[in-house]
Amino acid sequence: MTNILVVGSGGREHTLAWTMGANATVYCTPGNAGIARSARTFDIKENDFDGLAALVRRNEIELTVVGPEAPLVGGIVDYWHDTGLVDQGHLIFGPTRDASQLEGSKVFAKQFMAEYGIPTAPFVIFSDPDKADQYVGSLLHDIVVKADGLAAGKGSIVCQSLSQAETAVDRIMRQRKFGDAGSRVVIEDFMPGEEASLLVVCDGTNHHILPASQDHKPVGDGDMGENTGGMGAYAPAPIVTPKVLRIVESEIIQPTLHGMNQKGMPFSGCLYIGLMIDEGAPRVVEYNIRFGDPEAQVVLPLINNVSDLLMSAAQGRVLDAVVTPRYTAACCVVLASEGYPRTYQKGFPITGLDNVSQDNVSQDGVYVFHAGTKEEGSQIVTSGGRVLGVTGFSVLDNPEQAFRQAQGKAYQEVPKLRLEGSRFHYRTDIGDKALHHFS
Ligand code: GLY
């Protein structure tokens, strides 16, 4: 069996470990309490490249899969190449530091899209907050103010009034709420439509498109309240029709890979395209350079050969991967700590896990992916904002029935999971938006 290392500690990394564990021996660092059931875990931080490299050599790891964006933007893939690991057969799945600018710099991404004619919202870039204020004062439509750099998913602020726009500019550029990430902003027109996420496994030249999914970023039902890292997701997302997918492939994916090649930064790894689809026309909201979370929880279980696919991509031959379908639909409901996405307490024991989670979900069923959990003595306790991803699966052929079954299974199990001394909060409408696309 291939030895694979997953770097990270969230629900996405648990999903990577769980799906790849079918055909590989999986190691993970730093991991969490759930990942420890699917993989051998270690206590090495994701930005400790020396420590990770030593682990890889010691355990004869053939492929390292990096979950979060920070080590990729920080150059972990370049480190693997520069220190000879790749030449010695220790491959890595992910983009280089240069290619990671597609997520690491909104300014880079928007200028790139403009240069290659990739459909996105019109935008202007500012490095002077007074000029940004002047600009927003002249506008009569809704806008989005985006910090240039990484901001843990909180750096894009939708503004529906002048005062909201001025506050956004102030928070990002003057108060530096996201540090240096706010030294420049992109201000773009608000795009109407419905969002979807497309995860595309790339090898620098070629690509393999995974089933489309839909995230639910706002904290409350009906998309109300503050944005989070994602309160749930489902796949496949029927808003991405075969026709929309053809447009995305020819107008977005191919020009992106071509453009990155032309710039001398071939993109290898998972290209996450955040889409806004309005009356069948897709435009790019953002690029990310890694699997989405919680999108990974509903997309990766839909195929059988995740480890082969990622290994083939890291070898530069993604088209050789034989990818067969597994589940026909999946729906993930995130259980979050009380107070998330604002302040919350940690350390509450979780009960009910043994009544739900299974390591071998054979047909339709439910699996609980862990995010912010850790073991404390004999208990599993909360250690983060997003704690668990209760994920229902289906193998039914009919897309609507499959979706309804996956959603029903997830929500049937959610009440079994509880916290001692606190309570989970979760959305009760994950996936409901899919329903009007079926009729
Ligand atoms: N779910 C949004 C993200 O992964 O960025």
In short:
The chain is an alpha+beta fold and 439 residues long. Helices cover 30% and strands 28% of the residues.
Secondary-structure map:
Elements (H helix, E strand, L loop, with lengths): L1 E7 L2 H10 L3 E7 L4 H4 L1 E2 L7 H10 L4 E4 L2 H5 L2 H7 L8 E3 L7 H4 L1 H10 L7 E4 L2 H9 L5 E5 L8 E4 L2 H13 L10 E5 L4 E10 L3 E3 L4 E2 L2 E3 L3 E4 L4 E4 L6 H21 L5 E11 L2 E8 L6 H5 L6 H9 L14 E9 L12 E2 L1 H4 L8 E6 L2 E4 L2 E4 L3 E9 L4 H15 L4 E2 L4 E2 L6 H7 L1
Parallel strand pairs: 1-2, 1-4, 2-3, 4-5
Antiparallel strand pairs: 6-9, 7-8, 7-9, 10-11, 10-16, 12-15, 13-14, 15-18, 16-17, 18-23, 18-25, 19-24, 20-23, 21-22
The structure holds glycine (GLY).
The site of glycine has 8 residues, from loops.
Which hetero compounds are present in the coordinates? glycine
The shape, in one word, is: globular
CATH topology of the domain at 2-93: Rossmann fold
- Distance N to C terminus: 45 Å
CATH level-two architecture of the domain at 2-93? 3-Layer(aba) Sandwich
Structural class estimated from helices and strands? alpha+beta
Walk me through what this model shows.
The structure is a single chain. Strands 12, 15, 18, 20, 23 and 25 form a six-stranded antiparallel beta sheet that branches. A five-stranded parallel beta sheet has the order 3-2-1-4-5. Among the domains are: 92 residues, Rossmann fold, CATH 3.40.50; 56 residues, 2-Layer Sandwich (Dna Ligase, domain 1). It has 439 residues and is of the alpha+beta class. The mean pLDDT is 96. Helix content is 30%, strand content 28%. The chain is built from 15 helices and 25 strands. Bound molecules: glycine. The site of glycine has 8 residues, from loops.
